Amino acid sequence: MPELPEVETIRRGLATHISGRTIQSVDVLHPRPVRSHPTGVDGFRFELTDRTFGAPARKGKALWLPFLDGDALVVALRMSGQFRVDQANSPLVRHTRVRFHLDDSRELRYIDQRMFGGLTLSAQGADAPSELSHIALDPLDPHFSAERATDAIRRRRRPIKAVLLDQSIMSGIGNIYADESLWRAQLHHSTPAASLTAQQVMSLVGHVTDVLTEAVNVGGTSFDDLYVDVSGTQGYFAHQLAAYGRSGMPCNRCGTTLVMERLSGRSCVRCPECQPVWEPNRTHRGAQQGPPKIGVQ
DNA sequence: CTGTGGTCCTGTATGC
DNA sequence: TGCATACAGGACCACA
C-alpha cells in the first residue's frame, strides 16, 4: 500500500523516534512477517535483541533500519505494513505482528493486516542492503538522473504504466502516483513507453517527481487506517488526487467524466478526453521502429 | 523480452 | 440477515 511518500513519512517518523534506541526484547505475535528469517521466530528474537538502531533509510518503497553494528533490518511494507512507536503499555492496535521493546519505555510495533510484507535481517546491510540491489533509484534520491531514467523508460515497449510500476527502472511509484502522474502528463496508461518522445518522457518524469514531492510534503495519502504515520496520524494528499479513486467524477482539467479501466489486474483511472487511447503512427513514432538510441555521448 | 494470471493474506463493500 | 463475490495502496513466480 505505501508508496514512496508514505514510506518516506514513516522513515522520518522513525528517524526521530528510534535512532539511537536499543532493542531490549522482541515479541513475535505472528510468524508470517518474519518468514524469511532462516532460524525462525526464536532465532529472529534472539538475533535482534541488544542491537542499537542507527538512522532509518529508504530506497523507493523499501525501508531499512540500520544497526550500529553494520547489519540492518530490511522492511517490505507491501500492501498493508505499517510502524507505530508507542508507550510500552499502551493498547495494541489490531493486526500488530511484532513488538520491539526499546530502552526508553517505548515500543516499535510492526502492524500488517494482510502480511504480504515482512522483516528481513540483512547482514552488513546498514549502508546498502544487498536485498535491495535490484531496486532502481527513486526520483527523490540525490543521485537520481531524470535523463538516465528517461532513457531507461524509452527502452521498453511495455505500456507506460507497467514501466512506471516496475521498481527496477525507476522506484517509488505505485498505483496511486502512477495514475496521478499519467493524468498530469496527459498520457494513456497503455501507451508503449518506446513510442513516447524523449520530451514526453522527460515531462512525465518531472510530473512523477512533482507528485511524489507534493505528497511527501503533506504526509502521504491516507484513505483509512491502512496508512498512517508512526504516531497514527493520517496523510493529506488524498484531498489533492486528480485521478486515483475519482472514476465517475469530473476531470479537474476539462470536466469530462473520468473512467476506470484495468491494466494487467490493476485499476487505472483516466480522463477519456485528456488521456486518449494511443494510436500507432499518429502523433509520435511507432514502437515498431525500435528503442531510441541511448547513451550516445 | 512480453503479457497474463495465480499467489501470498485479511477486511470491506456490494449485490442477490 | 446471510452468503457469495469482487476488490484493495505490492511484488514475485510460473507459464505461454
List keywords for this structure.
single chain, 6 helices, 10 strands
Biggest sheet overview:
4 strands, antiparallel
Order of strands across the main sheet: 1-6-7-5
Global shape: elongated
Low-confidence stretches: 284-297
> What number is the mean pLDDT?
93
Give the helices and strands as they follow along the chain: HEHEEEEEEEHHHHEE
* N→C terminal distance: 40 Å
Structural class by sheet pairing and helices: alpha+beta
Please indicate the percent range of residues in DSSP E strands (runs of 2 or more). 15-25%
How many H/I helical runs? 6
Range of helix content: 10-25%
- Write down how many β-strands occur, each being a DSSP E stretch of 2 or more residues: 10
The value of Rg in angstroms is 21 Å
Helix and strand topology:
Elements: H1 4-17, E1 23-28, H2 40-48, E2 57-59, E3 62-66, E4 72-76, E5 81-87, E6 96-102, E7 106-112, E8 118-122, H3 146-154, H4 160-165, H5 175-185, H6 198-217, E9 259-263, E10 266-270
Antiparallel strand pairs: 1-6, 2-3, 3-4, 4-8, 5-7, 6-7, 9-10
Helix pairs in contact: 1-6, 3-6, 5-6
The chain binds a DNA duplex (16 and 16 nucleotides) through helix 5.
Quick recap of the structure?
This protein has helices at 4-17, 40-48, 146-154, 160-165, 175-185, 198-217; strands spanning 23-28, 57-59, 62-66, 72-76, 81-87, 96-102, 106-112, 118-122, 259-263, 266-270. It is of the alpha+beta class and 297 residues long.
